[in-house]
Task: structure prediction
Amino acid sequence: MSSSEHEGSKRMKTELLVQMDGLAKTDDRVFVLAASNLPWALDPAMLRRLEKRILVQLPSREARKFIIQHQLSDGHRANYSGSDIMLMCKEAAMRPMRQLMRDLEKLEAKSSEHDLALMGKEDVDVKLRPVNKDDIAMALKCTKPSTKISHLKKYEAWHEKHGSGVSAGRDIDE
Result:
């Protein structure tokens, strides 16, 4: 624990380490799963208590393609994480909704509420369209990856030094 740490953080770390030590003394079967985006910032005492350290790579080209196909459509981005791809898919899915809202606002501006009530369903052609490739292209333009290539190399270096020799994922040069 560093001297620049906040007192509350120190107390929390100490309590966590004490509790983890207590887990080793029980006959109960306990599985501890921990995750960190900054493994190099973990306390050495915590690292000693985490027996297996596994690097989970960014999704492979095939996994990215599957995620996008599963969510919306085909596509891939080299340094997009699973969360980045999900955010991009949500952005693409919102584009037809935004278009529908604009269409409704235009319709409302053209007609008074009374006129809309008199119109038949066939007179009002405002529908939510399906997501298309243009939506995905625009979502890709405004959704940037959260992972930098330099971080990927830093994860790899940390894993080489502290990892368990198991890596779930792909090569960073793919």
Observations:
- The mean pLDDT is 76.
- Strands lie at 54-56, 166-168.
- DSSP finds seven helices and two strands in the chain.
